[in-house]
Amino acid sequence: MNPVVGLDVSKGESQVQAYLDKGKPYRKGFKVSHTLEGLKELFDFLEEVKGKTGIQPPVVLESTG
């Protein structure tokens, strides 16, 4: 497996989508707010992906432009 987590960053929140491998999305994408609670939710999700794959996934950011 080659997991990766993508974040589409916007003002106040980010859209999150993980892939376990190329073309294999993991779960449905979701939004996290840019708050301490939202960051904890994102961290917990990253740990979930790591537990599923055995690999800490890299995080790729796409900022608004």
Instruction: Return Rg in Å.
Output: 11 Å
Biggest beta-sheet profile:
4 strands, mixed
Write out the strand line-up for the largest beta sheet, numbering strands in chain order. 3-2-1-4
CATH topology: Nucleotidyltransferase, domain 5
Which regions contain 5 or more consecutive residues with pLDDT less than 50? none
β-strand percent reads over 45%
Helices and strands, in N-to-C order? EEEHE
The average pLDDT is 95
Structural class: alpha+beta
CATH class annotation: Alpha Beta
Share of helical residues: 25-40%
Q: Number of helical segments?
A: 1
Number of strands: 4
Protein name: IS110 family transposase
Structural account:
This protein has 65 residues and is an alpha+beta fold. It has one domain: 2-Layer Sandwich (Nucleotidyltransferase, domain 5). The chain is built from one helix and four strands; from the N terminus they run βββαβ. It has a four-stranded mixed beta sheet with strand order 3-2-1-4, covered by helices on one side.
